[in-house]
Write a structure and sequence with these properties.
The protein is an all-alpha fold. It has helices at about 5-15, 20-35, 45-55, 65-70, 80-95, 100-120, 125-130, 135-155, 165-185, 195-220, 225-245. It has one domain.
């Protein structure tokens, strides 16, 4: 890795889109969702490791003007969608209660499967390439994959579980939403100023967290409706992506 790539990696990890920025997004999500519980209790070694993994996943998101996006190809900072997925999965496994009923397993599969299909159809793991694949069909497939992920998050993150520290639950909501953002972004997203994209993403994640929290209260914190909706979105994403790639 050359000096420029090393500097970009440090910036991505500590400032944007990881580090300070990821924590700011999580703070907005936690406030909007009105998460209950304490901020200081429950920080077991597993919870600390989960938070670290989430902060490692955030720099892999190709937001406009992010260091990994701005570096030329081969600069050593390519963003990897599979890497982000693995980090998110490990964070969920470490940072939440080790309870895996069928609905939670189904939600996890629904969150992951469409993204893996996108990687396979694009023949790449590059998040930047996948987020920019042309065509209305692939754009619809990406959007449905993002919706499947967003619907699975409340089931996987256990956002009402006060045994998990509130900041960690906020990160478990915010970082998957950051991953979903480039998949939902409209054409021309990469051309807008980085500061504007960052601000819009913060607002969008906060809105998502508020809506999810409200829907969870309406559903009386039952997982089944969210898992079922995530599965339907995942099936739609896979079908649309496969058909669009023919």
């Amino acid at each position: 890795m050359d000096t420029l790539s090393l500097f970009a990696a440090v910036v991505a990890m500590t400032l944007f889109p990881g580090g300070v920025y990821a924590c700011a997004v999580a703070g907005g999500a936690g406030w909007a969702a009105r998460l209950r519980g304490t901020a200081h209790q429950g920080w077991t070694p597993a919870a600390l490791a989960a938070a670290a993994l989430l902060l490692l996943a955030a720099p892999l998101v190709p937001l406009p003007d992010a260091p990994a996006v701005e570096l030329p190809a081969g600069g050593g900072a390519a963003v990897n969608l599979l890497g982000a997925m693995l980090l998110l999965g490990a964070a969920v496994a470490l940072g939440t209660a080790a309870e895996w009923p069928r609905t939670r397993i189904a939600a996890a599969a629904a969150a992951a499967a469409p993204l893996l299909v996108l990687c396979a159809q694009a023949a790449t793991l590059s998040f930047t390439v996948i987020a920019g694949l042309p065509g209305a069909g692939l754009a619809a497939g990406r959007a449905l994959a993002a919706v499947a992920l967003l619907l699975a998050v409340p089931v996987l993150a256990r956002i009402e579980d006060a045994r998990t520290p509130r900041p960690l639950r906020a990160l478990l909501v915010a970082v998957p939403a950051l991953v979903a953002a480039p998949l939902l972004a409209p054409p021309g997203w990469s051309n807008i100023p980085g500061a504007a994209a960052a601000a819009l993403t913060v607002a969008g994640v906060a809105l998502y967290a508020a809506v999810v929290a409200a829907l969870r209260r309406l559903a009386r914190e039952h997982d089944a409706p969210f898992a079922a909706a995530s599965i339907l979105a995942a099936i739609g994403a896979i079908v649309v992506t496969v058909l669009a790639s023919r």
